[in-house]
Amino acid sequence: MKSAIVTGATGMIGSQVVKLLLEKGVNVTAIVRPMSEKMRNLEAFKVSSSDNKNYGKLNIVECSLWELPSLRDKLGWEHDTLFHFGWGYTFGTGRNDAPKQEENIRAAIDAVHLAYEAGCKTFVGAGSQAEFGFTESKLTDSLPKDPVTGYGIAKLAACKLTQLECRNLGMKHNWGRILSCYGPGDNDYTMVMAAVRSMLKGERMQFTPAEQVWDYIYAEDCAKAFIAIAESGVDRKAYTIGSGEPRLMKEYIYAIRDAIDPSLEVGIGEREYNDNQVMHLVADISELVNDTGYKPSTTFEEGIRKTVEWAKANP
Length: 315
Hints:
Blueprint: E1 3-7, H1 12-23, E2 27-32, H2 39-51, E3 58-62, E4 81-84, H3 98-117, E5 122-128, H4 150-169, E6 172-178, E7 180-182, H5 191-200, E8 213-214, E9 216-218, H6 219-232, E10 237-241, E11 247-248, H7 249-260, E12 280-281, H8 286-292, H9 300-313
Helix pairs in contact: 1-2, 1-6, 3-4, 5-7, 5-9, 7-9
């Protein structure tokens, strides 16, 4: 890979992909939402890129996800891979708003056409565990999909339709379904970052009984998985991205507490589970490992220490 396009480039995973690609000497066009408050993350990469001759070049392009067709013939250089992380309405009422999720499907298809016109041979899209719905099985693409949210339905539709468009255009297509991801740049509304923020203030946070069996992956490891998929993934395959090492939710919570202050009290069992709580969320990463050679390398304890340090520096 010599040159890549990354949509959603200021997000937690997208920004890590940009960073890792630049360090590999890959030139990157980062497509970001106009006036994004996270633009400073990419600006720091741009300074590093200009100071180090071994880094790739970074070109930051401001463009709404809904206006990707306007970028045709405006990206500056030839590209070979497009990573599509951009997605709107990921939380709140928009998550189950059909017309809004339809916009995301349209944008994903627009991203395929942008990739083709920019000379890309490979399209890699970011999916979600929400595409599966409820299941007690380890998540792998061979499982039946029965999404129960508008977000999950739209992600699955985007997977299938972008695959169809890539086939029609003669491009390689891959899809990475992300389980629970955490790390620097995480949104404050996630369980991990909400717990980190609260515990850093010395607050006693209330949790559910936390008996869920979940699979968290560190953001940098997740980004490495997407790059491995782009480079070595089998055409038209969708890969599940997780650590492959599930734990009880309460174990994650105690690990967060221990990284901040082992003496803090945590209110395990003081809240009820949410309606339709997902109790089993575990990745089968065997195909990802076999096809690409990729393996996660960051333990939750190591990753959460780095996440806490980032949160301290970014209050």
